Amino acid sequence: MSYIISPDIPDNLLESYLSESEIAVDTELHGLRLYRDEVCLIQLCDDKKNVSLIKPENNQRPPNLMRLFTDQSVQKIFHFAITDVAFIKTSLNIEVKPFCCTKVMSKLVRTYTQDHGLKDLILELHGKHINKEQQQTNWGDSNLTQEQLEYAANDVLYLINIYRKLLQMMNSRSQLRSGTNICDLNQKAQSFLPGLVELLINGYGDKDGGWGISLFSH
User: Fold this and answer.
1) Coil, strand or helix at 26
2) Closest by Cα among 40, 193, 38, 31 to 107
3) Each residue of 114-147: b (16+ CB within 10 Å) or e?
């Protein structure tokens, strides 16, 4: 499949996205340091496999993208959400809400493994091996290849289905001995993420290259 890059979500796709309950989102970055590095590419996909690849012009805030990211009726699905949401805020001054993280979900329910990367989830839940050769690339390049764009699109094509399958796994998991269940714990864990993003944006990440925080350590 051939992909093209746009400076914003096309109007017809925006209306389609706004009619959905979930939208998959990912970003490609210059690097991983807040306020130094920027968002280079934003990937979106709905349940019908409609993919948008957005490259904001001069870090300007695309109006259709902002409308989608702030629409309260559409859940934005990320894998390792804190990075994407933090960079969208620092690069484009857009506060994404509501959002959830499939990596958090995976760690809560897939306790039989230590492999919680998106590649691992796609392999287990879809039986597909995703090529990650294009991961380390200059996403700021104005002439991205179709191989690079296909790699970027793959990061969102499977994400909604992964989210739903993880929810199914949580619902089928037995109640914990404490009396609570994984679904309740997931809701609580997801509710922590916006506050964690704010802490990291404001410089309280002091571990793992700024993405871990010791604020609550003993």
Assistant:
1) strand
2) 193
3) eebebbebbeebeeeebeeebeebebbeeebeee
Choose which CATH entry (2.40.30.20, 3.30.420.10, 3.40.109.30, 3.40.47.10) describes domain 5-207.
3.30.420.10
Q: For each of the chain's 218 residues, which pLDDT tens digit applies?
A: 789 999 999 999 999 999 999 999 999 999 999 999 999 999 999 999 999 999 998 878 999 999 999 999 999 999 999 999 999 999 999 999 999 999 999 999 999 999 999 899 999 888 887 766 555 688 988 889 999 999 999 999 999 999 999 999 999 999 999 999 999 999 999 999 999 999 999 999 999 989 999 998 88
- Helices and strands (DSSP H and E) totals, the chain: 8, 6
